[in-house]
Amino acid sequence: MKLKRYHIGDDGVQLISNALQTNSTLTEINLVGNKIHTTGALFLSQSLTFNSTLTSLDLGDNLIGAYGVKLISQSLQSNSTLTYLNLEDNQIGDEGMEFLSQALKLNSSINTLDLSSNRIGDKGSNSIGQFLKRNSTLTQLILINNNINSDGVNFITQSLQINFTLTNLVLWNNFIGNDGIKSISEMLKINNKLNTLDLTSNQF
């Protein structure tokens, strides 16, 4: 189901979420750009707790914020069918990333996660590193246009000396610098499973 930029808001999400709790056929939902806030995230989290068929959820360009991510994260700890989650441009920040990290330590289904344009900095990068040390299902992580510098990259690369499941890491338009490149180089000496590493538009 594609409802991209229909501006359905939280009320519209409530109707969809109610249906998802009993629907057993729908596998994909695109809700990009629908002015979804924390309340809408609450409705979605409730549906994800009960739904067992949805595999793809695209929430890019909404306004769910850190607390909205916390609500969704709670449902991800028990959900075992969702494989694709896009949270791009949702004002998650470092606080929201910490909530999501706790869920991804336990989640066993998501293989693709897009966290682009969410103002994730050093603390959020540390949270990413922490869940990557525990997670064994995520294969693609997209972190375009965040505030990740050399320290943040170091947190992530340290985890990738342990995690050999991730195969695709996208770090476009961050601030990794020369020290970040050094951390990446050290990681690549150990990790031979990472197939794609995209560092476009970083300053070295």
TrEMBL record:
<keyword id="KW-0343">GTPase activation</keyword>
<dbReference type="GO" id="GO:0005634">
    <property type="term" value="C:nucleus"/>
</dbReference>
<dbReference type="GO" id="GO:0031267">
    <property type="term" value="F:small GTPase binding"/>
</dbReference>
<dbReference type="Pfam" id="PF13516">
    <property type="entry name" value="LRR_6"/>
</dbReference>
<dbReference type="InterPro" id="IPR001611">
    <property type="entry name" value="Leu-rich_rpt"/>
</dbReference>
<keyword id="KW-0433">Leucine-rich repeat</keyword>
<keyword id="KW-0677">Repeat</keyword>
<dbReference type="GO" id="GO:0006913">
    <property type="term" value="P:nucleocytoplasmic transport"/>
</dbReference>
<dbReference type="InterPro" id="IPR027038">
    <property type="entry name" value="RanGap"/>
</dbReference>
<dbReference type="InterPro" id="IPR032675">
    <property type="entry name" value="LRR_dom_sf"/>
</dbReference>
<protein>
    <submittedName>
        <fullName>Uncharacterized protein</fullName>
    </submittedName>
</protein>
<dbReference type="GO" id="GO:0005096">
    <property type="term" value="F:GTPase activator activity"/>
</dbReference>
<dbReference type="GO" id="GO:0005829">
    <property type="term" value="C:cytosol"/>
</dbReference>
<dbReference type="GO" id="GO:0048471">
    <property type="term" value="C:perinuclear region of cytoplasm"/>
</dbReference>
